[in-house]
């Protein structure tokens, strides 16, 4: 859930809550047509999460937040946006009173300390975040994060009152070797701390070779991995698919069994496209 209406998030690093740049007018969003009915696991609300990665200026982040805010009301899915660290507070303030949650893209496993350049989970919470993405393949590759590190970070997030979104996924070589299911089961087993399901933790399946490439697994491949993940985590954990999710393929992907939402990368940087994906969730 976003920060409750009427309560302004605490200022981050002394930044004022007001004074965001003026936002340019936005083009109204198109509505999706002919979408399929999403096959969300019974009892679980779909989650559409946008990972903005390391993109945008402060002005662009404010404009994108306003675009998402303007189209979020009345959607069946829960909406989450994860801007770069410096913009979390501004985006959280923009979403006050609206059904849009805000999250971070990583956190340190320690709550505080001499860790130059890192961000602690309580800091994210203090800036208005309620979710945090952990174990993304880009973090695992660029920063050498292991399952054990991801597990410790997820535990730290839960302790701070954040909902962790833990990413798993195989490389192209692992898929071609027939190891995809084995790899993601092992990543889940090594990356989820005790109490993950009870804390509302989310698992996102992102095949590494599909992220930002425009390539996606077949629907049968996605369904097979999500079925294996459901067997592994049980029925209380939402399972997202990520990897080149776009308005054109979202309805078909979200209609697959055990797909409870999407973790969206590039398409989340355009409010109109992101909201079209959200509408495809039901």
Describe what this molecule looks like in 3D:
It is a single chain. This protein is of the alpha/beta class and 282 residues long. Helices cover 34% and strands 13% of the residues. It has 10 helices and 8 strands. It has an 8-stranded parallel β-barrel with strand order 1-2-3-4-5-6-7-8, surrounded by 7 helices. α8 links the parallel β6 and β7 (238-242). α1 (58-72) packs parallel to α10, α5 (147-159) crosses α7 (180-191) and α7 (180-191) packs parallel to α8 (219-233). It is globular. 49% of the residues are buried. The model is unreliable at 1-37 (pLDDT under 50).
Question: Which segments are poorly predicted (pLDDT under 50) over 5 or more consecutive residues?
Answer: 1-37
Shape: globular
Q: Strand-residue fraction? A: 5-15%
* Helix content percent band: 25-40%
Distance between the termini: 19 Å
- Structural class of the secondary structure composition? alpha/beta
Spell the H/E element sequence.
EHEHEHEHHEHHEHEHEH
Average pLDDT, to the nearest integer?
Answer: 89
- Rg, Cα atoms, Å: 18 Å
Largest β sheet strand count, sense and barrel closure: 8 strands, parallel, barrel
Query: How many helix segments?
Result: 10
Total strand segments: 8
Strand order of the largest sheet: 1-2-3-4-5-6-7-8
